[in-house]
Design a protein that fits this description.
Layout (H helix, E strand, L loop, with lengths): L1 H34 L4 H16 L6 H12 L16 H6 L1 H4 L4 H26 L8 H11 L1 H9 L3 H16 L3 H9 L5 H18 L3 H20 L3 H15 L5 H8 L4 H23 L4 H14 L16 H39 L4 H17 L1 H4 L3 H9 L3
Length: about 400
């Protein structure tokens, strides 16, 4: 009886603590939303979703695009500016139903910020688990703080885009694989198809690994989840696919987002395109050999390869917002983890210095308007760091424990 009461008391205490923390977080985000003018990315999918849910207007309707542009710019977008077209699958609006039903933008944005912050915390915890983090209890709040405040993470919060949730489901699929929950891994991968230009290569790598390893239950979970999402979407709005495809083509051709091709062509009009193609060829060669090596290997090897893939994705030349660099946060934490485990106190100090340099460098690049840092310098530096820790990062867990038990 006493143990039963103790369990009830603990459950009530934890529930009360969770509600208090969640309420405080929501209140803080609400004040932030009302006082800081931002959230254009959130507005770009919240407003079309709201018009669809409450007024029955197609989210791909050009009227939604013009309405969002007026809210963001105070006018219709000009040539060279973001159009903020809704180019997401229809099921995003269905999953977004609770927030789309809220008429107050600031309340909806505050709730969205809470969700993004929780997703970032979840991504940090999953990344620490996948990288077999062995740091002290003090390292957790420091790593969480880094994940929330480094420039790509903070920018994604400010813009209100999906990248934190996309990162969580893609790397969450790896964690599910590690726990042999293959159907769950496939389902999570299906939800990673929203920002396809960011997650597409990582998901393609996962597909290669699935077929090489013969774990087809992952594919079953993926197809089942995607089929349900598409079926519900067609039942709700049968004509959405053609509109989605048409808007996607228009947005793709606009080419207003930063990219290696745009940057190099502006710097070197004569040979810029050739240089960008060469950079893409380098990325293709690197990933081709690493993907081949990862086939048939364990999840620890797949995690390193997916981290490298996330880092090199901008080199493929697609339009790539600097905030989308937050998708590579697990790669950063993997490097920190290996440095701390391999070289002890010296490694932890080195990881701290690398983290500070990364934090300061990316923020400085942002304030100076140097988007090229996110497209060129950051992927290059992270590729070097990932190859530096490659041998230890791809070892099976048993060998890691052996090293730790020997005090290495």
């Amino acid at each position: 009886m006493r143990n039963h009461l103790r369990t009830i008391f603990l459950a009530v205490f934890l529930l009360s603590l969770t509600l208090a923390l969640g309420g405080g977080l929501f209140w803080g985000n609400l004040q932030f939303s009302r006082n800081v003018r931002a959230g254009a990315e959130f507005l770009a999918f919240w407003k079309p979703a709201q018009n669809f849910v409450l007024r029955g207007i197609s989210p791909y309707d050009v009227g939604n695009t013009l309405e969002v542009q007026r809210l963001v710019y105070g006018r219709v977008a000009r040539a060279g500016e973001r159009s903020f077209q809704f180019v997401m699958p229809l099921y995003v609006t269905l999953l977004f139903f609770p927030l789309a039903s809220i008429r107050d933008f600031f309340i909806a944005r505050a709730l969205w910020l809470v969700l993004l912050q929780v997703a970032t915390a979840g991504l940090v915890l999953i990344s620490m688990r996948l990288s077999r983090w062995r740091g002290s209890w003090l390292s957790l709040p420091l790593v969480l703080l880094f994940g929330l405040t480094w420039q790509p993470g903070a920018q994604s919060m400010l813009d209100g885009n999906f990248i934190a949730l996309q990162s969580l489901v893609v790397f969450g699929a790896l964690r599910a694989l590690e726990g042999e929950a293959d159907e769950l891994a496939g389902a999570l991968a299906a939800f990673g198809l929203v920002y396809i230009r960011v997650t597409g290569l990582a998901l393609l790598l996962l597909a290669v690994w699935v077929f090489a390893s013969g774990r087809y239950r992952i594919l079953a979970g993926f197809l089942m989840t995607l089929t349900i999402l598409l079926a519900v979407s067609f039942l709700v709005y049968p004509g959405w696919m053609s509109e989605f495809f048409f808007r996607g083509i228009i947005e793709w051709r606009s080419q207003v987002l930063p990219s290696t091709f745009r940057s190099l062509e502006n710097w070197f009009p004569g040979i810029g395109v050739s240089l960008a193609q060469g950079l893409r060829a380098v990325a293709i060669v690197i990933l081709f050999f690493e993907w081949q090596t990862a086939r048939g290997k364990g999840v620890h090897w797949l995690f390193w390869t997916m981290s490298l893939t996330a880092v090199l994705t901008p080199w493929f030349g697609m339009g790539f917002l600097p905030a989308w660099t937050a998708f590579s946060l697990p790669a950063v934490l993997l490097v920190f983890s290996v440095m701390g485990q391999r070289w002890g106190l010296l490694g932890r100090l080195a990881a701290l210095l690398v983290g500070l340099a990364l934090f300061a460098g990316l923020w400085a690049a942002h304030w100076r308007g140097l988007d090229s840092i996110f497209l060129f310098a950051y992927p290059f530096a992270m590729t070097i760091l990932l190859y530096w820790v490659r041998w230890w990062a791809t070892r099976p867990p048993r060998l890691w424990m052996d090293m730790l038990s020997k005090g290495r």
